[in-house]
Amino acid sequence: MQQAPSSPNLAIETRMLGKIFGSKVAVRGLTLEVARGEVFGFLGPNGAGKSTSIKMMLGLIAPTWGKALVLGSPAGDVAARRKIGFLPEHFRFYEWLTAAELLSVHGRLYGMVKTRLRERIPELLNEVGLWAHREKRVRDFSKGMMQRLGLAQALLNDPELIFLDEPTSGLDPAGRKLVRDIIKAQRDRGATVFLNSHLLGEVEVTCDRVGFIKNGEVLETRRLGALLEGEVTVTMRAGKLSPETLVALGQRVSSLKVAGDGLTFFTPSTDALPDIVRFLVSQNVDVYEITPQRLSLEDLFLRIVGPDGGL
């Protein structure tokens, strides 16, 4: 059966992608679309199938069922893989090589010509802050330096699509800012970045969209711009709240919780708050305090994945 063509606007397209290891279902049915030129965050609890999903998209392991198209070609296609950069969460480099030698080896594996490598290696080592350590052997690198070197090798071939699996692991705040800046620069040049990270604050300031995965399935995707502009969580302190008023309020807001004279709930935006306050006052409720707060990515993660879905 001939595979349907991929949309030219998509860097990644999966349909009901699944993987079983023995009796364990690692990925149940991953259906996902990632547009070219966007930074996409992949979020889920430990054991949700994130790393297995990435390996199937890269063609490193074969799916048990479903399909994946990457840069318009079936996952694992050799020509497409030459246009992909990958930083795995757990990687081991040849520790007897220097930083410059390691990048040279990886560049030759990509098929890069020597003249381009002589230009690219200094560029990258400067970009990740390792030029001064170019002749140091990898065995003498700290964890943070190793992470920076791993990021450099993922960018070596000017990839169209970059998979970053926990790229800020082991990095200090300056290192994390460096990664954010590099990701932004890659997006600015038109590359697609697929980011798996458990640091929600980093994801929130870096990604254009996020997908939430649990038990090997995508539960929901959200555009972060809409999240930043939209839904808010509201805490309120009020008196003289009758059961009837609470029922009516619960129909106007979502996830209403009451503890004494304290209320918490969600609204689509702060624009809804004046009407809510007017309604409560019309019901003779004493409103002492109201505090809206933008819904954070952590709040959204807990709402979609659930409180038992720790990263």
Sum this structure up briefly.
With 311 residues, this protein is of the alpha/beta class.
Draw up the topology in text.
Blueprint: E1 10-21, E2 24-35, E3 39-43, H1 50-58, E4 65-70, E5 73-74, H2 78-81, E6 84-87, H3 99-110, H4 114-127, H5 143-155, E7 161-165, H6 173-188, E8 192-196, H7 200-206, E9 209-214, E10 217-223, H8 224-229, E11 232-239, H9 243-252, E12 254-259, E13 262-267, H10 273-282, E14 286-294, H11 297-305
Parallel strand pairs: 3-8, 3-9, 6-7, 7-8
Antiparallel strand pairs: 1-2, 1-4, 4-5, 9-10, 11-13, 11-14, 12-13
Report on the structure:
This protein is α/β, with parallel strands linked by helices. Helix content is 35%, strand content 30%. It is built from 11 helices and 14 strands. It has helices at residues 50-58, 78-81, 99-110, 114-127, 143-155, 173-188, 200-206, 224-229, 243-252, 273-282, 297-305; strands at 10-21, 24-35, 39-43, 65-70, 73-74, 84-87, 161-165, 192-196, 209-214, 217-223, 232-239, 254-259, 262-267, 286-294. The strands form 3 sheets. The chain has a 6-stranded mixed beta sheet with strand order 6-7-8-3-9-10, sandwiched between helices. It has a 4-stranded antiparallel beta sheet with strand order 2-1-4-5, with helices on one face. A 4-stranded antiparallel beta sheet has the order 12-13-11-14. Strand 12 and strand 13 form a beta hairpin. The model has no long low-confidence stretch (mean pLDDT 88).
